[in-house]
């Protein structure tokens, strides 16, 4: 299927942001922004779970229960991600790299499934990774599934309200082109947050060392 011309720039933006975040997480180098390569080490489990401030929301073993101000652990499996029913706590809890990366992987997986899949999965069906390598793999799988969903959308689909039935957002009330734009913004801003957390962790480790 030919990609609709108005989807092309959004698809290119998604591909760029996805590759940049993946390289930031796995190395061995990342584009510094000026065309030069900056060395970067792969994400470790310790960094993945690092809590830079007190009372963070993170991913936790289900047996340990939710963290401060959380009322549940979202997801499936041995690990869960801190969560609470609306209205969320105020001020918002600081979320760890693990929380943010897990959120991205889940969001992409679910939106893909609610676009071209069975429209059945919920947050309670998606495993929450407890380690860095599994989290990066889950993000990559979710991103690949979402990209496949995008390639199946024609012009009519882009204008269809509710083409994506993702149940944890406004997707059922939005034309699909708006959902595509929003997913890109999620990837861009959470990717930037994750990159900053990596910088802070490296600086902290150097200071301690």
Strand order across the biggest sheet? 3-5-4
Whole-angstrom Rg? 18 Å
Q: In terms of per-residue confidence, which ranges show pLDDT below 50 for 5 or more consecutive residues?
A: none
Which sequence of SSEs, written as H and E, runs from N to C? Answer: HEEHEEEHHHH
Helix content: 40-55%
Distance between the termini: 54 Å
Number of strands: 5
Q: What is the overall silhouette?
A: globular
Walk me through the structure:
With 209 residues, this protein is mostly helical. The protein has a domain at 8-51 and 107-208. Helix content is 48%, strand content 8%. The chain has six helices and five strands. The strands form two sheets. A three-stranded antiparallel β-sheet has the order 3-5-4. A hairpin with a 4-residue loop joins strand 4 (72-74) and strand 5. Helix 1 packs antiparallel against helix 4. The longest helix is centred in the last third of the chain and has 33 residues, at 176-208. The protein starts with 7 loop residues before the first helix and ends with a helix.
């Amino acid at each position: 299927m030919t990609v609709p011309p108005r989807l092309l720039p959004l698809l290119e933006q998604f591909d760029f942001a996805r590759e940049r975040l993946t390289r930031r997480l796995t190395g061995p180098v990342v584009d510094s922004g000026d065309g030069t390569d900056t060395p970067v080490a792969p994400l470790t489990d310790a960094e993945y779970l690092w809590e830079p401030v007190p009372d963070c929301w993170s991913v936790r073993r289900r047996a340990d229960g939710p963290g401060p101000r959380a009322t549940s652990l979202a997801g499936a499996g041995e690990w869960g991600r801190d969560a609470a029913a609306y209205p969320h706590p105020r001020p918002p809890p600081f979320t760890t790299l693990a929380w943010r990366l897990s959120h991205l992987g889940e969001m992409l997986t679910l939106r893909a499934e609610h676009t071209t899949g069975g429209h059945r999965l919920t947050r309670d069906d998606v495993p929450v990774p407890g380690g860095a390598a599994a989290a990066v793999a889950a993000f990559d799988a979710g991103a690949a599934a979402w990209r496949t969903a995008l390639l199946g959308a024609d012009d009519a689909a882009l204008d269809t309200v509710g083409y994506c039935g993702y149940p944890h957002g406004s997707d059922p009330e939005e034309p699909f082109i708006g959902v595509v734009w929003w997913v890109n913004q999620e990837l861009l801003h959470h990717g930037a947050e994750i990159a900053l957390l990596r910088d802070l962790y490296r600086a902290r480790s150097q200071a301690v060392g």
